[in-house]
Amino acid sequence: MYQAIIIDDEKWVIKSLIATISDQQYFEIVGEFYDGASALAYIQEHKPDLAFIDVQLPGMNGLEVLQAAKQQNLPTLFIVISGHAEFAYAQKALFHNAVSYCLKPFSRNELMDSMLKAYQILEKRANDFSAVSSEEDQADETVDLNVPGLENGFNPPDRLLVDNKAVRSMLDYIASHYTEDISIQILADLTCITPNYASQLFKEETGSTFSSYLTNLRMYHASRLLRNTDMQIFMVANQVGYKDYFYFAKVFKKFTGYTPSAYRNTFQNSAGRKEY
Fold first, then answer.
1. Four-way CATH pick for 157-272: 1.10.510.10, 3.40.190.10, 1.10.10.60, 2.102.10.10
2. By percentage, how much of the chain surpasses pLDDT 90?
3. Which of 16, 25, 94, 98 is the most exposed place for a label (fewest CB within 10 A)?
4. To the nearest 10°, the Cα dihedral for 209, 213, 219, 224?
């Protein structure tokens, strides 16, 4: 079972919520809090999987807790429980990555649907993390980072030191799917955050925008294919995610200062040619 807490300034509301969801098997209620500040302190230290939170709380209100959790990239999911049906509240809650917005008095079906959604997000996170961990346990082959013509300082995903798990997952996904159409929306869905936040977080952690990083990675692999194989250039373009050869050639020249054919002629060592 995943761990959940309930944050509401009225004890009878907490007891009512616990009674309503008592027979579910997704979450174990491990804490009750009656104000936002103490709840946030607990979330920061213990990082429970889910928090049911009221909007109206003494001191720090529920939306402020959500905002703080989002800014600090805390992994806890939130289900907002409120007696206020105002659209503005719901809109702000969802903007701060709340799973759902449930109105009091509680509807069991609505709560169960919300909890199932949270459970599915957590399961997806766990599966993605397991897959990433498995890949990281495999031995890495030695990669030549001296790529003529590419921007100085570019490193492949497995060479970037990134502590944030969400961004690490994004980088690993890009490394495995850079030959496909990838968007920031896909990465946001992968890490269960909003596209805007995914874009901001990616740039903060890597120092590069998502689109710039993806292009660098594609150029990195294209340059290696051109130097180390006899693959036809249109196939190189396709291999690194470009269906349009002419667009690929334009981007490649912008990044390296060479057309693909000139790059190959300049840097390919036929005596030392190796298989990519």
1. 1.10.10.60
2. 20
3. 25
4. 160
